[in-house]
Amino acid sequence: MPERINRRDNIVDVAAKLFVQNGYDATSVRQIADVVGVTEAALYYHFKDGKRELLEAVIECQIPDLLNIVDECGSAETLQDFIVQFGQQMMALNPKRVEKLRWMVTEFPRMTAEERALLHHKQLAFQNRVAAALERFISDPTQARTTAAAIICLMYGYGFLFVSLDLQSVTDVDKNDIIQLLAQGMAATR
Amino acid sequence: MPERINRRDNIVDVAAKLFVQNGYDATSVRQIADVVGVTEAALYYHFKDGKRELLEAVIECQIPDLLNIVDECGSAETLQDFIVQFGQQMMALNPKRVEKLRWMVTEFPRMTAEERALLHHKQLAFQNRVAAALERFISDPTQARTTAAAIICLMYGYGFLFVSLDLQSVTDVDKNDIIQLLAQGMAATR
DNA sequence: GTCTATAGGGTGATAGAC
DNA sequence: GTCTATCACCCTATAGAC
Question: Mean pLDDT, to the nearest integer, of A150-169?
Fold first, then answer.
């Protein structure tokens, strides 16, 4: 195996950055090659199926993995505490992560069935992990799953509306207040 | 004024459909002209500034107006009832509406400052209307605003995750359960 | 592995006739 | 208002030399 396996990863990294920043259609193979510092022909050597294969590679490495966020909330001793910690972790997500999520939404219609399945699988795993963590506080598994879904929806909705659409720059609603409200509410239905 | 003011609207309608379906970059002026049934030159007569002006027109008419949803919940007599009704209205939104929202997220980075301001203005108006409706049940205005933001985030998050990303096809979490849970929780913090 | 060169086609946009 | 004709440019992709 060649010493420069890095070149392929290098290309994917650059492509990912440009795809997320400008969109798949607005990014040309030429542009990617220029940033990488090679010619288009070299790029087609690494990705025989061209731009589409490049997109596949980017999609696979761009699907966000949030599982570790759940683990960071292990110290919580009450449901309310857990939701506050979890919510703060989610809302403190690296802006890059939010960008990735936004991009997954924009490119979803272009994905193949397998790519969609991969995305669904990762998202379900995340949801299940959150539900499992909630079972420390919520005995009914179905209710734990519903609660997990509700929390995740709220967090993602906040990300899309307030971060991706930058609503946070024009409203005075405090994100910590939203988390507190949710935590109190979910804890109160127990 | 000419009898065919319709032609301009006609073009915007077609452009909107294609932009939402395939994205701005993946839609060519030629394609729009073909569907409308005119030539590109005719199109440039109506939109002197070309494709970008077309996008402006589409953005303006595509920003969703959800204000009437709030009015439909006037019969609710408790906070819990209101949230259930509101949530069901939101989740029953025409799939076309969800598509529009998805599209706004995808094209946001391409928007000018004025276009973003227009979007923010409409979204804030919606949020304020919901908060105002909530003041029937929540006396503290700040808490009403926070509650409104939380509900809206959850609904939008559901739309993006479960509808736009089609997570609803692979999970058994019931959307009515989510609404019920939220309604109980928000009502319990009173 | 990377290059040069080029094919073949789509793109946004405009000039000028009707 | 709408057309035909045309422009200059950019795109994806490939062949073949090094």
Answer: 98
What class does CATH assign to A2-61?
mainly alpha
In chain B, ranges of CATH 1.10.357 domains: 64-188
Note the CA–C1' distance, A54 to C1, in angstroms: 18
Specify the DSSP element, H or E, that contains A119. Answer: helix A113-134
Tell me the pLDDT tens digit for each residue of A77-120.
999 999 999 999 999 999 999 999 999 999 999 999 999 999 99
Which H or E element spans position A99? helix A95-107
d(CA A186, CA B12): 45
pLDDT at position A1 = 47
Whether the model pTM is above 0.85: yes
Residues carrying CATH 1.10.10.60, chain B:
2-61
| B17 in contact with nucleic chain D (CB within 7 A) | no
B64-188 maps to which CATH number? 1.10.357
Please state whether strand C lies within 7 Å of residue A28 at its CB atom.
Answer: no
**Cα distance from A151 to chain B (closest Cα, Å)?**
8
